[in-house]
């Protein structure tokens, strides 16, 4: 979380200005390098720290890519599906990260140092090999974008972005009140997930659960979230009601987080609703910030989520170190407070879906592109989003 912020904006620049191919390849290459460096754990533990640092640097390049790839390659009806699959691929990776350690490292290794060393090394080798297998085909086959734009908005955005820079994009986003409020709200729900998965093992260990049981429950939580995210994308594709979907996800997460009677069932439903916010947040950010680069809006959302998540973990970890049951209640109330704030922001914020308006206006213009001046007037964002100095006209389709 600490490394994410300083690396986030260079990763956004790489994805939006160099293209998704270079940004994604940088992320996967650094991930693979970091995993192999960790395999030197039995030589010196410092290699684990170096490898983990490289992994932290790599993370923003892949986390900020889903909406960018979707916009480059998919049309209006497929974008949400693509973003959901890409965002949930990150979640699947985390789920595998919960599951694989339980296959190698056993609870009894705590009492046998040599077995613990061997099992940990085997675990790190396995993960490094998997990452290498993924890197090779991506490096050979993955392209930045197709020869022709897949959607009306992508056709127009390639022209609208010609004179933009990362600095201008960020200033535009910070001035966009609606985007920033939803960014904070989405960041709150996302940070709930980050913080919850980070301190989850510590929370349930107070009730006597082992590390292996924590791994299994965490895996189920994340797998349920993948299903929830895909279903959310299906709903939004047919009915783009982002506000309703965001409020529903937050309320469902808020209510289910109160249950500790049936831990596994509660975690399944919690993951199902909470993790669906990721694909919703990325696409909502693009819709409200168009024509700003997709990686830029997603990167800012991820930055807010990481700041909130880091603050939550730093606040809750000392509380849970006392290992008393009432401390679990305190941490739960902190998490619920974050969700409640996000819920209020969702309720009282106006959702202005700029990209959707742009596409509808182009269709209503009998096949002709919209002038930049007319587009700015129709969405009333001249002072909130950057636009080129002179009027730009998208050519006839």
Automatic annotation (TrEMBL):
The keyword rRNA processing does not apply. Pfam families: MFS_1. It is a multi-pass membrane protein. InterPro entries: FLVCR1-2_SLC49-like, MFS, MFS_trans_sf. It is found in: Membrane. GO terms for biological process: heme export. The chain crosses the membrane at residues 20-37, 80-100, 120-142, 178-204, 216-236, 248-278, 298-316, 328-348. Coiled coil: none annotated. Keywords: Membrane, Transmembrane, Transmembrane helix. One of its GO terms (molecular function) is heme binding. One of its GO terms (cellular component) is membrane. Its main location: membrane. It comes from the Eukaryota. This is Major facilitator superfamily protein. It comes from Stylonychia lemnae.
